[in-house]
Structures are given as structure tokens and as C-alpha cells.
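Tutorial, part two.
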Amino acid sequence: MKPTDQPNDRTDIKVAAAVRRAILNDKSLSTMAHNVKLVAANGVVTLRGPVSNADEKAKVEATTAAVAGVTHVDNQLDIKH
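Running the prediction step on this input gives:
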């Protein structure tokens, strides 16, 4: 299993789905941000992919951190220029 694979643990899947929903529900975020890759494992959510700017990177991280069940956010998002 690679670090980019979502574990099949029921709790991890629920957390990942909740984070995805929270990101998609924020209409101020770009399509790029709505499509970031995310993996939840044991409360740690890893974010990968491009976003528009530093503000959006911070907002996606804050949105993720606010989701129940998330204990840590590993923000590996890239800012597209």
C-alpha cells in the first residue's frame, strides 16, 4: 500500500468523505481546490494537488482541520502560478 492509497478503515473513509464534502461546500474555493487529492488515515489527512494561491492553500487546510475526526493535516498542496 502506498501513502497515496485511502485505507479501507470505515472511520478513515468517513473522515475522508466529510473532508471532501466540507471542501466542496465552500463555493469560494476554485475548481482546482475542489479537486485536491486527500487521504485520511488514523485522523491524519494528507492534502495533495494544485490550488490557486496561498490564501486558498490555507483555507483548504483550515476547512480540513475543522472536520470532526481530523487530528492533523499534512498540507502538501502546491500553489499554481
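The chain has three helices and three strands. In part three we will examine how such features are distributed along the chain.
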